[in-house]
Amino acid sequence: MPPTSKLRIHFVTEDDPLYVIKFFETFFACYPRDTFHIIGISIQKPFNEAKVATARRILSFYGILDFARLTSRVTFQKLRKRSISRLAREEGIALVPTRSVNDPAFVRRIRLSEPDVIVSVAAPEIFKDDILGSARLGCINVHSGRLPAYRGMMPTFWQMRFGESHATVTAHEMNAAIDSGAVLGTREYPIREHDSLDRVINGTKRQAACLIIGVLKELASGTSRAQPLDMKSASYYPFPSRVDARSFRERGHRLL
Description:
The chain has helices at 20-30, 51-79, 84-90, 104-113, 129-132, 155-161, 197-221, 242-250, and strands at residues 7-14, 36-44, 117-121, 139-143, 151-152, 166-173, 183-190, 236-237. The protein is an alpha/beta fold. It has one domain: 3-Layer(aba) Sandwich (Rossmann fold), CATH 3.40.50.170.
């Protein structure tokens, strides 16, 4: 990339007014506007599923009391009209809607916008070959877990569940296999002996924003050095169940 040009970035994320929004609040407050040009953002439904299905999933995991508390927080944020889409509009960033990042029409639109890089922040679906190949420098993902040990969903939860002393936030290249691309950078966030998932997720989202800024600066300057993963030690974790949440609490942690 010529030294006088800006890195053209497109974000793909999910509509989350509680946690993922913390990433964008931090990123928009700190990113170098003389180096980065955010050309668009696509915001999808959480888990890329119907609201009823998401509500059932969250209720099963959190339980009735924490589910009610979480719902009240979401309602409060909506009353405040705080959302990722509003942050984007305040920044003058184009909203590029899509039901699927793998939809051919969406891929064509992205190609026409000529991004240098696509950044996935909690994007709710697997990127297939067409979208992976639509940006000049490819796609990168920010994952709130150490790779390849904590591939999959809710890595912050699983790191706390298994007694890690810190949560590792990882920026990595995206390829056809989930959470298996070469690592571009990491940051750590401490986990207390008795902690809350809420606190650690908030902290890792802010750390993730700072990490991505650094990684994108290296991509822009041509100094990025990707480190391939050794998949021999890989593990994959699904969205945690009610039983997993019980084990989590037995360690002395809280969800909220």
